[in-house]
Records
---
Amino acid sequence: MENIVEGPAPQPVLAEAIEAFVLEQRARGVSPHTLRARKADLGKLLVHAAGAAWEGWDVKPRTLRGFALELGERGLDPASQARILSTVRSFFGWMFETQRIGQDPSTGLRNPRLPKRLPAFLTEGESGALLDLPEPADFLASRVRCILELLYACGLRVSELTGLDLQDLLLEERTLRVLGKGNKERLVPYHEKAAAVLEAYLGFRRAFLAGKNLPPTPAVLVNQRGGRLTPTSVRGFLARALETAAVRARVSPHALRHSFATHLLNHGMDLRAIQELLGHASLSTTQRYTHLDLESLAKTYESAHPRARANSRV
C-alpha cells in the first residue's frame, strides 16, 4: 500500500491484509474509481490501527467503534463517514469469510444518520433555455448539443452516456440500449427532436473523424483525438452551457437526469415507468421525485389558494 499511512508505522500484518483485499477486489472486476476510494477508506482505518497499536485485525466490536467515533470527531460529513464504514464492513466481512479472523467485529457498526437531501433539478423553463441552442455549425457545437439533449431526453447517468457505442443506437426505433449499474441493460426511448439532434451530430462525427484521418471507433461521443469522451469533459461542457444560457450555476450533469424524472412525473407518468427508464433497482429510489412534486405542488397551492394569499397579506 503506497502513501496511505502517516504517523506510526502499522504492523506488517495489517497492511498485508488490506493489500490482499484490494487485489481480490480488483480480480472481481471492481472499477478503478471504486477501488481507489476503498483503498483510501482503508488507509484511514490503517492509520487509526497504527496509532492505537493494533497487533492484528482480530479486534473487539467496541475497539472498532473507536474508529467510527474518530471519524465523527475529525469533522467528516455523515455521507463520507457512511461510505468509509461501508468499506470497513466489506473488508471485515471478507476477512471473516476467508478465515483470517475468528469473528466479524463490524456487524454492529452503524452509519451516522444522513440528512435527507432532495436531488437538484432544473425547472422546465430552465431546461428549455439550456437546450434551445442555435443550429450547430461544426462538430464541437453539435457534440455539446447532443450531450445536453440526450441527458435530458433519456435521463441518463453521465457514465451511461459516455459509455454508449454506435451499436447501442437503435435509430429506427428511436431507442438507446443503455448499460447501467450492475451491468444491467435497459432500453430507453427518445423523442423526435432528440433524434434530429443525435443524427445531426452523427453526421458531424463522421466528417470530423474522416477529416482528421482518425481510425474508426465504436464510441458515440468522441474527443478531438478520436477517443471516447470522459465524464469529466461532459461536466465541463455543462458548466459552460449553463453560463451561456444564464441558468443557475453549480448544477451537475446529474441534475438533468433529475429534471427528466421530475418533469415526467409532473406530467402524469407512472412512477414505475419512470423507474424503468432511470434503471433504478428499487422503487423507493424513484420515489424521491414524489417529494419534489409535492414540494412544487405546495408552492403552487400557496400562490393560488384565495385563503393562502389572504393570509400572506396579514
---
Amino acid sequence: MTVPQPTLDQHLKAALPDPDAGWSMGSFGAIAEFHHVAGDPAPALLAGCAAVSARGGVRLEELDRVTPIAWEALSPRPDRWQQGVALCLPAPEAAMTQRAVLTELGPDHDALRAQDRAGVLFDMGLDQPQVDFCIRTADPELLALLRAHVGRPVMAPGNPAMAAILKAHPHRVAQSRIGRVEVYQKIGGPDTGGTSPTGPHTHVLPKLLRARRSHSANMPIPEGLVPVAGFHPPSPIMGTLAEDRAFDPEIFAAFQAFLSAWGDPVNLAIKQRLWAALAGGAEPGDLAPPEDRAGRVAFRVALRQAGRREGENARLARWRAAYDRELDHADEDAPGH
C-alpha cells in the first residue's frame, strides 16, 4: 500500500514549533522575518498555519494555491551554502496593491494577537510587487504625525514620517496574498547599536526598493512565478543566528527530500552526478561542470556539501580549487553567512 505523502500545509504546520525553522515575507529590499530565539518560551500555535511569540509571528493561508520551490545557493563563506523554500504564486495572483504613498488602512482586525487589533495599520507605500509593507501603532503622537503626512511618499525629502517611524519602533506587518508576518521588536538602527535585534526583524533598503523586483536573482524562481513567502527549514551547518554547527546528516537529508519534491530536477541531477564521480575517485577534469549559471551553482554547492558530509581531503581540495574559487555575480542583498 502506498503511504500518502504529507501535503505542503502539513509540512509547514509541522515546522511551526521547530526552533530552528524560520519564515519571511517581502520583496527585494523590504522583508520581515520571523523565527524563534533560544531560551524564549515556545511560540503559541494558532488556528490554521500560524504561530506568535512575544517578538513576532506568522500566518499562512490558502496554501493549496501555492507552488513551493526548494532552492540552494552559494554563500560568501566557502564552507557554507544557503537554502530555503519559496512559496510562490503566478505573478498576476501575487500582485498586491503597490501603493506608492503613506496610506491609512484603519484598525488591524486581522492582527495575530487580540491585543493588537485596535492598533491602526498604515501601508508605508513602498510600491513593491507582492507585499504591502505596513506599520501598526496605537501611539497618539505617532498617529497624529502619520495622519498629517498621509498621501505622501514616506521617503520624500522633507517628509518627517520615516524618521518618526524609526524613532517610535511601531510593529511592522508584511502582508502578501497568502498571509502576513508581524514583527514587534525594535527597528534595527541607532537604538539597537546599528544591528537588527535577535529574532524577528525587518529590513527596508531604499536602494534595493527602487528596482521594484520581487526577489533576488540568487533565488532560482521559474519564470512566471513570484515568491509571496519564504520557509527556511533548519540548516545542517548553522543555527538561526548564523552560528556554525557540526554537520547534521538528518537535517541535510530532510532538505534534500524537499529538493527532490520541490526543486529543479536538472540541478538535483547535477549534484548527484558529481557525488557519484567523487565516490568513484574522479579527478577534476573527469566531469565537466555545467555551462549555465544555475548549473554551476548546483555543482559548487555539491562540492561544499561533499566537504561537510565526508570531510575535506586533498582530492576534494583539488576539485574546489578548480571549480569553487570565486563567487559568481551576486545581488547586493546576498546574505553574508
